[in-house]
Request: fold
Amino acid sequence: MVIDSRLKSIYDGKSGTDPEHQRLVDQLTASFGPGEAEALVEGACTLVYMYMNWLRTAFEKQEEDVIEHAVPSLVATMRMMPRTFSPEVIPIMAGLLIAAGTGLSPNLWRAQYGPWTKEEMNPLEAMVVLLAEYINRISGNGEDFATRLITDVLSQLD
Reply:
């Protein structure tokens, strides 16, 4: 829902984060213990995996490679956002996209490099938003297609 909220603010043309919304998000995350925080990060990585899996399938139908098309576009966007994506986190985010794009679990890929750092949290969230926006844009099925994609998958679970 955080990703959906961020997308809606982008599409509504709002710059920055609504202070009240940010206060509520900060309050929620402050209440998290280590287990909940880890689950939130794993959830973000799962979204990356699901989005990249959808993109891989969509590109393969066109006989194209998801890594060749999606990753350079997303990395270029990250490079244009230096306050969110410092140069040192871009290779980590690109590696995460590539891992997911080749069918590897982003959670397991990242685990081999150690735990996530505090400095990587905002870029991770922003990357998931960029990825969802990229899907919305290329799908042509509306500004909430990426969110519907995930809710459809979740609704099929027992």
The helical segments are 2-11, 19-30, 34-61, 66-79, 90-101, 106-111, 121-139, 145-155.
